Amino acid sequence: MDPTTIDTAPHVERELLEVNLGPQHPSTHGVFRMQATLDGETIVKLKPVMGYLHRNHEQIGEGITYIASFPFTDRLDYFNAMSNNFGLALAIEKLGGIPVAERGEYLRAIMAELTRLVNHTAVIGFLLNDMGAFGTPLLYAFREREKILDLFEAASGSRMMCNYVRPGGVREDVPEGWLAQAKQLVDGYPRFLDEFEALLTQNEIVRQRAQRVGILPRELAISASVTGPMLRASGVNYDIRKVDGYSIYPTCSFKVPLGTVGDVYDRYYVRILEMRESVKILQQALKAVPGGPAISSKGAAISRAPRTFRPPKGDAYGRIEAPKGELGFYLVSDGSPQPYRYHIRAPSFINLTVLEDLCLGHKVGDVIIILGSVDIVLGEVDR
Amino acid sequence: MAVIGSGVLRGMVVTLRTFAETYLWGRAVLRALRVPPVDGLVTIQYPDEKQQHAERFRYFPFLVYDQTPDNLRCVACKICEQECPPACIHITMAKDAQGRPLKAHGRTFPAQFDIDVSICMSCRICVDVCPFEAIEMDNEYELSGGDRVQEMLFTKARLLKSDGYFHQIRPEEARVVDQRLAAKKAPAATTPRPPA
Amino acid sequence: MSQPQIFASLDQLFVNLSAWLLGLLPARLRPSASLLMAIGAIAALAPLIMMYLTWLERKIIARMQNRFGPTRVGVYGLAQPLADGLKMLIKEDIVPQGADRLLHVLAPILSVAPAILLFAVLPVGRNLVAADLNIGLLYFFAVSSLGSYAIFMGGWASRSKFSILGAMRAVAQIISYEVPGVLSVVAVIMVAGTLSTVGIVDAQAARWFVCTPWGVVAALLFFFSGVAEVNRTPFDMPEAESELVGGFHTEYSGMKFALWYMAEFLEAFAICAFTTTFFLGGWHGPALPFWTAAFLLAVAIGTARLLAWPARVVGVLATLGAGVAWGSQPIPSWAWFFAKTYALVFVLVWLRGTFPRLRVDQLMGFAWKFLLPLGLINILAAGLWVVWPFPLGTLASAGLLALSAWGLVRVNAPEPLQPRPYILAD
Question: What is the pTM (predicted TM-score) of this model?
Answer without folding.
Answer: 0.86
